[in-house]
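Protocol step 4 of 5: obtain the predicted structure for the target chain.
Materials: sequence only (see below). No template structures provided, no constraints applied. The aim of this step is simply to have a reference model before the mutagenesis design in step 5. Sequence pasted as it appears in the construct record:
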Amino acid sequence: METNKTPLLKVTGLKQYFPVTRKFTVKAVDGVTFEINAGETYGLVGESGSGKSTIGRSVIRLYKPTEGEIIFNGMDISGKMNSQTTQQLRSEMQMIFQDPMACLNPRKKVIDIIAEGLDIHHLCKNRADREERVAKILHKVGLAPEHAERYPHQFSGGQRQRVGIARALIMNPKLIIADECISALDVSIQAQVVNLMKDIQKETGAAYMFIAHDLSMVKYISDRIGVLHLGHLVESGTTDEIFSRPIHPYTKSLLSAIPHPNPRVEKSRVALTYDYATSGIDYNVGVQQHVEGTHYVLGTDEELKKWLAEGSEY
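Step 4 output (structure tokens):
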């Protein structure tokens, strides 16, 4: 596939700092580097506060990056952008937010919410063309055309999330950032939404940055996975590499916490603990070490040799 030669999105040394006082600054993201190819799903996992959502918002330029380079579809979007670059970015990159109710305007009908991007960029010839496009995208996400005249409070949580997906898809983007878009939904609805996203990806060829807590769901949808901790990308690789051969102790602790459906196995499951403060690891000193294939781990040479010697039981 040609997409492996030129990544759709290339993030290099991304830093996102938030000054709190004159003497204290929160380093939400600190030197993160990764790539996303066209048509693939890149999963970002980590505990709350690790910087997952901040990365997504920095990439789509809801935040201005403190430092680093972001190349999207051949455009440098890390610094000040001109009007042409901004318009192209807003058309080709979209975001699905976590809370399907908070991100939808309660005073607008669904047709106006979904068609807002079309209106801003003047992509519709007339009112009939606008209604037709909205009806098609509603059908694609599993909703009926008559739902276009309803308000967000008239839908269930899963239906509202489908409206959010439709709003992102109608611009026909090359990259969709899904910021924990299933965490607020019931488990059965989560499966429906994820399957819907996979079907749409096959049909449109869009790439996903899938941000989530649920490791089993990330394993199901992702081609490659990046593990975040304290604003640092501690490990990245293909889904099989991360789940079958985790190297970093933080990744091992995350995987060991996944509940097992077999009650007998679950009873004997031992969750590993990882405390950065007492681990003796310094993320600021460590560099990304190449293991094999596309597998990278954050650590020094000595730490990497130690982790490889210990092996993995997960």
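Step 4 remarks: The two ends are 31 Å apart (CA to CA). Residues 23 and 236 are 33 Å apart (CA to CA).
Proceed to step 5.
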